[in-house]
């Protein structure tokens, strides 16, 4: 569900974003139908044109990292005017981050960009593209010997300039849980199991509102 909703928000009708808080499941399913039609139409028109359009990428080959690299390199040329000279690879083990920029710590030299395969399977190509833009911002700032860590003003400015998420966090959906003792917010879970305890009081968890966490960290409440 998230994959389609995400694509919808960012591609089909970006202005609808503001209404997210009021979404019901029914609305979401209608969105899914809409995005499916939209995708079909897009794919038909795109097979006719050869130019690079990031919004039009819906599938990325995962049997090798070749297509992933090509997309990353095109984004690099498009947004930074320079090719990406480090490998961009699928990573089968990373689940808790959408992607990461790996560099040599002593000399601050770029090594490679990795992209979580699991996140692609969960959330689709547009999520990968957003993540690649984020990682490329790290890469290009690093090359220019500028501060490139998450949250530095330079990095935030670059992300804003190219429309990349500020954090390459994974998306989540589930119930917002609360500590049954003190009421403090705890993890977002599909459902609370007996063995899950709150970090604050080591007490049982209570499931409340159903939420979706978007890649920018924003939480959106959805009616179930
Ligand atoms: Zn980052
Ligand atoms: Zn507590």
Provide a descriptive summary of the structure in words.
- The chain is of the alpha+beta class and 224 residues long.
- Helix content is 38%, strand content 20%.
- The protein has two domains: 1-7 and 51-162, Zincin-like (2-Layer Sandwich); 172-221.
- It has six helices and seven strands; from the N terminus they run αααβββαααββββ.
- The strands form two sheets. Strands 5-4-6-7 form a four-stranded antiparallel sheet, with no helix packed on it.
- β6 and β7 form a beta hairpin.
- α1 (2-12) crosses α2 (25-46), α3 (66-80) crosses α5 and α5 crosses α6 (153-162).
Concise description?
This protein has 224 residues and is an alpha+beta fold.
């Amino acid at each position: 569900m998230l994959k389609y909703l995400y694509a919808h928000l960012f591609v089909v009708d970006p202005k609808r974003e503001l209404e997210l808080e009021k979404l019901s499941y029914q609305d979401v399913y209608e969105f899914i139908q809409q995005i499916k039609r939209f995708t079909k139409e897009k794919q038909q028109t795109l097979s006719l044109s050869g130019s690079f359009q990031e919004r039009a990428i819906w599938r990325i080959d995962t049997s090798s990292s070749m297509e992933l690299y090509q997309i990353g390199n095109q984004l690099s040329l498009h947004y930074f005017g320079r090719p990406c000279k480090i490998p961009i690879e699928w990573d089968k083990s990373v689940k808790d981050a959408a992607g990461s920029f790996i560099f040599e710590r002593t000399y601050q030299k770029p090594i490679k960009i990795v992209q979580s395969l699991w996140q692609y399977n969960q959330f689709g190509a547009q999520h990968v593209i957003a993540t690649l833009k984020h990682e490329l911002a790290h890469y290009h700032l690093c090359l220019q010997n500028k501060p490139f860590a998450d949250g530095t003003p330079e990095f935030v400015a670059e992300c804003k300039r190219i429309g990349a998420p500020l954090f390459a966090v994974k998306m989540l959906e589930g119930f917002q849980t609360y500590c049954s003792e003190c009421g403090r917010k705890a993890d977002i879970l599909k459902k609370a199991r007996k063995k899950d305890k709150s970090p604050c009081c080591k007490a049982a968890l209570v499931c409340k509102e159903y939420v979706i966490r978007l890649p920018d960290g924003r939480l959106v409440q959805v009616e179930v």
